[in-house]
Design brief:
Layout: E1 5-12, E2 15-22, E3 25-29, H1 35-44, E4 55-56, H2 62-65, H3 68-75, E5 79-81, H4 83-92, E6 100-102, E7 108-111, E8 114-120, E9 129-135, E10 138-143, H5 151-157, E11 162-166, H6 171-176, H7 181-187, H8 196-208, E12 213-217, H9 226-239, E13 254-257, E14 264-265
Parallel strand pairs: 3-4, 4-5, 5-6, 10-11, 11-12, 12-13
Antiparallel strand pairs: 1-2, 1-14, 2-3, 7-8, 8-9, 9-10
Helix pairs in contact: 8-9
């Protein structure tokens, strides 16, 4: 039986892209880096941009879309996103217009034997999505750029074998950091980004629902560190008696932090 495979290629406030494959079928979630950088990363995993079955764009912000202009011009890959995001993308990348596929919250898209269900997320964009990816060889819940854990985000993530979730900022670093007040308030709002603490609170619930692997993603390079994100979730899991797996010992759940600019395999 084939196994669902997933890798973050880039994961930060500066750029995001994730490669997902199952058997001969593969697609991206977001293209927030240059075509060259994304292509190099995909090829290192044995894939090819021109063989991708699609790109799911979570929302229109540049750290999720910056590669679309050149990719669409050279590869003609279907781009699945909300109609309001389509309008903005087509203005910035006219070559992408013919590739855009209107996608709404609640839609189910089949990429070969991969089932992708689309859910809305609370974020300060014209529209934004998270995804539940299901195959006979595993399931993945994928949610970044979420101001809070809404009912729809829970529906997307609960019961998945593996979950990739945003752990964007440490509240103290954000409060004492260099950002202007309006930007701090935006990030900390219910339609901004998810803090380490909010992410950590969800982790034990995910574990109780059957998740065995959590990847923390979309960390701010200014307002967070991998250690702070990891420790916040680890401590919360420990409080609820959830033990972590390690290279040399068994446990209930594997926890990792996606690298900013290096490929990170999402354990499934």
């Amino acid at each position: 039986m084939n196994k669902l495979k997933a890798y973050t290629l880039f994961s930060s406030s500066k750029g995001n892209s994730t490669y997902i494959s199952y058997g001969k079928d593969a697609f991206l979630i977001d293209a927030g880096a240059s075509m060259r950088a994304i292509s190099t990363a995909v090829e290192s995993l044995g894939g090819s941009l021109k063989k991708l079955r699609g790109i799911f764009v979570s929302h229109e912000h540049d750290d999720h879309t910056k590669g679309l202009k050149v990719i669409s011009k050279n590869c003609g890959i279907p781009i699945y996103t909300d109609p309001k995001c389509m309008n903005l993308i087509s203005m910035q990348a006219p070559a992408a217009e013919e590739c855009l596929v209107p996608t709404l919250a609640g839609d189910v898209v089949h990429i070969g034997d991969i089932k992708v269900t689309v859910y809305p997320t609370p974020h300060d964009s014209v529209r934004s999505f998270c995804y539940r990816i299901e195959t006979a060889g595993g399931s993945l819940g994928y949610a970044t750029d979420i101001g809070h854990i809404s009912d729809e985000v829970q529906d997307a993530l609960f019961g998945c074998d593996s979950v990739l979730i945003e752990s964007n900022y440490d509240p103290l670093l954000l409060q004492n950091g260099p950002y202007p007040k309006f930007l701090k308030e935006r990030i900390d709002s219910a339609r901004g980004h998810l803090s380490n603490a909010a992410c950590a609170c969800l982790a034990p619930v995910l574990a109780r629902c059957g998740t065995r692997s959590i990847s923390l993603a979309h960390l701010s390079e200014t307002n967070n560190t991998p250690r702070l994100a990891f420790e916040a979730t680890k401590e919360r899991l420990n409080e609820y008696g959830v033990s972590l797996c390690g290279e040399c010992f068994a446990g209930d759940l594997r926890l990792q932090v996606a690298s900013v600019a290096q490929i990170t395999e999402i354990t499934l």
